[in-house]
Structures are given as C-alpha cells and as structure tokens.
Amino acid sequence: MDKTDINEIKNQAREILDRFAKALEKVKTKETEFYVDREEFERAEIKGKCEDFKLELLKNAPQKDGDFIIAEKGKWK
User: Fold this and answer.
1) Does residue 50 contact residue 60 with C-beta atoms inside 8 Å?
2) Looking at the 3D structure of the chain, how many domains does it have?
3) Residue 77 domain-assigned (yes or no)
4) Are the CB atoms for 45 and 51 separated by under 8 Å?
5) Mean pLDDT, to the nearest integer, of 8-29?
6) N or C: which terminus of the chain has fewer CB atoms within 10 Å of its end residue's CB?
7) Could you give the CA distance from residue 68 to residue 77 in angstroms, rounded to a whole number?
C-alpha cells in the first residue's frame, strides 16, 4: 500500500465516522441520566489470575494509595 491508498482509506474512515456521529445526534432518548443502582458496589475479590493482574497493574502505576491508582485522565501514558 502506498501513501495515497492509506490517505484515501483514512479519509473514507473519517467520512463514515462523521456520518455515524450525525446519525447519532438524531437519536432521541427519554432519559437524560443513565445509571445502574446496585446493592453491592464492588465485586468480591477472588484469589487467582485477577489478583495477579491487580498486583501487576499497581506495580506499574506511577502513583498509588494502597489498592487504588491515583491518576488524571490522559496523564498516565
């Protein structure tokens, strides 16, 4: 693929996304706020792979407070 093909594909993709965004603007909803009300706020932690993932994620986090990552949207890259 040469640069002309890549640019043409990018332009087509942008046009598709723009048309989709315009179509979404026309969608009307009855509710203005969406949320789920649950009795339990968090899932119970189980031993195993999930715990390993959590430990790895916390190990890589630049700032943390116990089991929580301290981050601003877009800052952690």
Assistant:
1) no
2) 1
3) no
4) yes
5) 92
6) C
7) 17
Domain range for residue 44? 3-69
Q: Is 18 part of any domain?
A: yes
For residue 39, report the phi and psi dihedrals to the nearest 5 degrees.
-70, -40
> Would you say 69 and 57 are in contact if contact means Cβ atoms under 8 Å apart?
yes
In a domain, 74, yes or no: no
Do residues 69 and 58 lie in contact, with contact meaning Cβ atoms separated by under 8 Å?
Answer: yes
Nearest Cα neighbor of 67 from 53, 49, 77, 40 is 53
29 pLDDT band, cuts 50/70/90, is confident
Give the number of residues written for the chain: 77
Evaluate whether residue 49 is within a structural domain: yes
Are 67 and 58 a contacting pair, CB within 8 Å? yes
Average pLDDT on 11-20 reads: 95
